Amino acid sequence: MYHIECIECRRKYQADEVIYTCTCGGLLEVVYDYSNIHLTKKDLSGPLSVWKYRALLPVGREPVTLKEGGTPLYRADRIAESVGLREVYVKHEGMNPTGSFKDRGMTVGVTKALELGMKTVACASTGNTSASLAVYGAKAGVPAVVLLPSGKVALGKLAQALMHGAKVLSIRGNFDDALKLVRDLCDREGFYLLNSVNPYRLEGQKTIAFEIADQLGWEAPDRVVLPVGNAGNITAIYKGFKELKRLGIINSVPKMTGIQAEGASPVAQAIKNNTEAITPEARPETVATAIRIGNPVNAVKALIAIRESGGTAETVSDEEIIKAQQELASLEGIGVEPASASSIAGLRKLVEMGIIEKDERVVCVTTGHLLKDSEHVLAVCPKPIEIDATIEAVRKAVFSDQP
Ligand SMILES: *Cc1c(COP(=O)(O)O)cnc(C)c1O
Ligand SMILES: [Zn+2]
After folding, report:
1. Residues 6+ away with beta carbon under 8 Å from 385
2. What CA–CA distance (Å, rounded) separates 155 from 371?
3. pLDDT at 223
4. Residue in 166, 159, 210 with CA at minimum distance from that of residue 48
5. For the whole model, what pTM was predicted?
6. Which domain CATH number covers 207?
7. Which ligand is nearest the CA of 24, by number?
8. Same domain flag for 95 and 31
9. Does 60 fall in a domain?
10. Which residue range is the domain that position 265 belongs to?
11. Which of 159, 214, 282, 344 could potentially form a cystine with 324 if both were Cys, beta carbons 3.0 to 4.6 Å apart?
12. What are the average pLDDT values for consecutive 10-residue runs of the chain, which has 403 residues?
């Protein structure tokens, strides 16, 4: 059994109410009757997938699934050595069906939409949410409407939204404008809103925590580092770890550590300034388009996750992001989009600052796949070497100093 509850005034709502924020304006979360959930490590044996943890998911019907989750947790010794730590892991969420962690939220969110009898699903997106919604809408046979900031969405993501048949609207404005519009649209038309303000979506995403603990032999790492945009994922992962602890499956909760781009960093600023209030960034800008968000909807939850867990938040420059992306690709063979690389850039910076200690066991979450944003890759990598089709030319090129 579960219900929805406001994190501010603790007002309760029935699980089948279509509501995204409390009447007081507070964010909502799904709360279970934990005393009635008897789950052991043994119950959780078997191959990884989102739906393996069904006992902790708020769904009562057959899921709309494309076999999401079960992403690799790589031990990244070369990155560890490069930043000066002993034990670093990369949870590569780019290995989900559409190439980002958004699939974990959408398999649960779109299943919930069917359960609630909703006829159309909708979202605003910096790209990956739209790709995922288009795919799960297609799988469920439900029309999807997506609102994107014009000219600021990586091509791979746009291609997915288009090919999987969503109605794709390109808004002359940024993500924050698109989110405001889609919330209004959903209220007026009765469409089901699947942005991360929807507490059911975050329930799917908390399985990242379940899998990390599962893959480490039911132990929590000391710290989880991840990019923060709308700040849903950091709160979802924190909730996942807290639930495992509550059920006695793990003993500790990792320090939640959020990384933002310098040009879009209201959560990191609030942590640095030790304030409750978020100062929105009117003109967010960064090469990491997935986190190009100026007014994070889940900021209040994220600040709680970071502070309660003893974590922190930091900013990184676009240069640092690109360097980390190249490092991850060349040192570990892990291809990620720019936003995802900010976790590695942030890891390096926090080690240099002495905030992350040498003997910490750290998991960095890489949120999306390299191929999502190949335009960016072509802009930052050397061009292919074009030559004549002769063996002389090939040999000359192979042994030249050009990269
Ligand atoms: C959505 C997304 C993020 C940001 O996640 P939030 O929950 O909005 O903080 C980071 N990286 C990638 C690749 C994403 O798609
Ligand atoms: Zn409330």
Report:
1. 397, 400, 402
2. 9
3. 99
4. 210
5. 0.97
6. 3.40.50.1100
7. 2
8. no
9. no
10. 73-99+201-380
11. 344
12. 97 97 98 95 95 96 98 98 98 98 98 98 97 98 98 96 98 96 98 98 98 98 98 98 97 98 98 96 96 97 98 98 98 98 98 98 98 96 96 96 77
User: Is residue 133 included in any domain, yes or no?
Assistant: no
Looking up tokens 């014009």 gives 150
From the CB of residue 30, how many other CB atoms can be counted at a distance below 10 Å? 19
**Residue 49 forms part of a structural domain:** no
- Tell me the H-state helices in 251-359: 266-272, 299-308, 318-327, 338-352
Q: How many CB atoms lie within 10 A of CB 3?
A: 17
**Claim to verify: residue 294 and residue 361 sit in the same structural domain:** yes
Q: What residue ranges line ligand 1, CB within 6 angstroms?
A: 100, 102, 128, 196, 227-233, 290-291, 337, 339-340, 367-368
Cα 130 to averaged position of ligand 2 atoms, centre (Å)? 29
Choose among 183, 146, 190, 151: nearest CA to 164: 146
CA of 233 to the centre of ligand 1 (A): 7
**How many structural domains compose the chain?**
2
Which residue type is seen at 138? A
Ligand 2 centroid vs 197 CA: distance in angstroms?
Answer: 14
What backbone phi and psi angles, to 5 degrees, belong to 5? Answer: -140, 145
